[in-house]
Automatic annotation (TrEMBL):
<dbReference type="GO" id="GO:0005743">
    <property type="term" value="C:mitochondrial inner membrane"/>
</dbReference>
<dbReference type="GO" id="GO:0006122">
    <property type="term" value="P:mitochondrial electron transport, ubiquinol to cytochrome c"/>
</dbReference>
<keyword id="KW-0813">Transport</keyword>
<dbReference type="Pfam" id="PF02271">
    <property type="entry name" value="UCR_14kD"/>
</dbReference>
<keyword id="KW-0496">Mitochondrion</keyword>
<dbReference type="InterPro" id="IPR003197">
    <property type="entry name" value="QCR7"/>
</dbReference>
<keyword id="KW-0249">Electron transport</keyword>
<keyword id="KW-0999">Mitochondrion inner membrane</keyword>
<comment type="similarity">
    <text>Belongs to the UQCRB/QCR7 family.</text>
</comment>
<keyword id="KW-0472">Membrane</keyword>
<comment type="subunit">
    <text>Component of the ubiquinol-cytochrome c oxidoreductase (cytochrome b-c1 complex, complex III, CIII), a multisubunit enzyme composed of 11 subunits. The complex is composed of 3 respiratory subunits cytochrome b, cytochrome c1 and Rieske protein UQCRFS1, 2 core protein subunits UQCRC1/QCR1 and UQCRC2/QCR2, and 6 low-molecular weight protein subunits UQCRH/QCR6, UQCRB/QCR7, UQCRQ/QCR8, UQCR10/QCR9, UQCR11/QCR10 and subunit 9, the cleavage product of Rieske protein UQCRFS1.</text>
</comment>
<dbReference type="GO" id="GO:0045275">
    <property type="term" value="C:respiratory chain complex III"/>
</dbReference>
<dbReference type="InterPro" id="IPR036544">
    <property type="entry name" value="QCR7_sf"/>
</dbReference>
<keyword id="KW-0679">Respiratory chain</keyword>
<comment type="subunit">
    <text>Component of the ubiquinol-cytochrome c oxidoreductase (cytochrome b-c1 complex, complex III, CIII), a multisubunit enzyme composed of 3 respiratory subunits cytochrome b, cytochrome c1 and Rieske protein, 2 core protein subunits, and additional low-molecular weight protein subunits. The complex exists as an obligatory dimer and forms supercomplexes (SCs) in the inner mitochondrial membrane with cytochrome c oxidase (complex IV, CIV).</text>
</comment>
<protein>
    <recommendedName>
        <fullName>Cytochrome b-c1 complex subunit 7</fullName>
    </recommendedName>
</protein>
Length: 104
């Protein structure tokens, strides 16, 4: 049980050290937009997509100004949920099925 807590502390430390949360970004906002991610983004419900666009635009603005959000507005490790993950998993599964079908 102690090892799990240590790993969780390391994850939280790394999460904060990465710095994207200080700009108001979530982990999924920082994914490289390859073809799979682009397709997953098309499938996001409008409110999730709009929230992502807002966070990214705000982060770009802050970055250009060499600023970060006030600490009380940083995305906390516990609040960062993988909103894109279910859509991305579906896209990858479909692509793999197509690839397998095309190999037949």
């Amino acid at each position: 049980a102690g090892g799990g807590r240590l790993i969780d502390r390391i994850r939280k430390w790394y999460y904060n050290a990465a710095g994207f949360n200080k700009l108001g970004l979530m982990r999924d906002d920082t994914l490289h937009e390859d073809d799979d991610v682009k397709e997953a983004l098309k499938r996001l419900p409008e409110h999730l997509y709009n929230a992502r666009v807002f966070r990214i635009k705000r982060a770009l603005d802050l970055s250009l100004k060499h600023q970060v959000l006030p600490k009380d507005q940083w995305v906390k490790y516990e609040e960062d949920h993988p909103y894109l993950e279910p859509y991305l998993k579906e896209v990858i599964r479909e692509r793999r099925e197509r690839e397998a079908w095309n190999r037949k």
